Amino acid sequence: MNTLMILMGISFLFPMYWMLNISFKTKSEVYNNPFGLPEQWVFNNYGDALEKFNFPRYLANSVIYSVGTIIITVFFGSMLAYCFSRMDWKRKNLALSYISMGLIIPSQVVIIPLLIMTRDLGLKGTHMGLILPYSAFALSSCVLMLYAFFRSLPRELEEAACIDGCSIYQTYFRIIMPIIKPAIATQCVLIFMNTYNEFFLAFILGAEDKIRPLTVGLLNFFVSIGVSHWGQIGAAMIITSLPTILVYIIGNEQIENALTAGAILK
Fold first, then answer.
1. Mean pLDDT to the nearest integer, 160-172
2. Per-residue pLDDT tens digits for 235-251
3. Which residue among 155, 173, 211, 239 is buried most deeply as judged by most CB within 10 Å?
4. Within-domain flag for 178
């Protein structure tokens, strides 16, 4: 079993090795020696890629989309999950089922209505034109995961807060929110990685160069440079992958907690 897990881990790391490997090779060596270590290490590929690829602008857009989606989704999703798990009201199960449907609806199905809505609301060509759809698609998983965390908390917390004179909002923000900080951190990591790596909605709704995220900007870089210099392509892929790799390294334990919480959802 350990051997199998090691082989699986190597297979997952191979694409990263391949990108890093070709990023230090010349044009000819990429074709003559695609998988071996470079015979001549070419570090200029990174400088040339940064010169041709508008990395700062696209990175700023990706960060805006990721942070904006995190704020909206976690704020509203956590309150909705708290409402589902701690309050009794009519048709709660129906509403929870409706939220769960968001996990199975692909973005390709609703792209035409989204285009029409962003145009009619005057959001076309703005960052909010992507942040709001991202938040809508991330809301279901956020609600369901936090719902599992909320159900594990004892109800005596709310009873004690009520005796002390706290309103429902004071109870939530002063008592409940500090307790579920690990779950909030988990959601922040997951939402950041999903939003940062998203391509389809960004390609359709973020066509203008001023609002393009890294994924779409990287595609335009590939189209402009063609397949004539795989070394620069590898360098650009490594540069754009660094933020999400760092976030995953920092938050991988939180992601494991999220998977565990999802497994105990009832």
1. 85
2. 888 888 888 888 878 87
3. 211
4. yes
Positive or negative CA dihedral for 102, 108, 112, 114?
Answer: positive
- Number of structural domains (the chain) is 1
Residue 14 lies in a domain: no
pTM exceeds 0.90, yes or no: no
- Say yes or no to pLDDT of 65 above 90: yes
Q: How far is CA 233 from CA 12, 25, 53, 242, in A?
A: 20, 11, 10, 15
DSSP-assigned letter for residue 175:
I
Q: For residue 262, what pLDDT is reported? A: 47
Range of the domain at 134: 62-211+253-263
Per-position b or e across 38-69, b if 16+ CB within 10 A of its CB: beeebeebbebbeeebbbebbbebbbbbbebb
| C-alpha distances out from residue 180 to 81, 169, 174, 177, 231, Å | 12, 15, 11, 5, 45
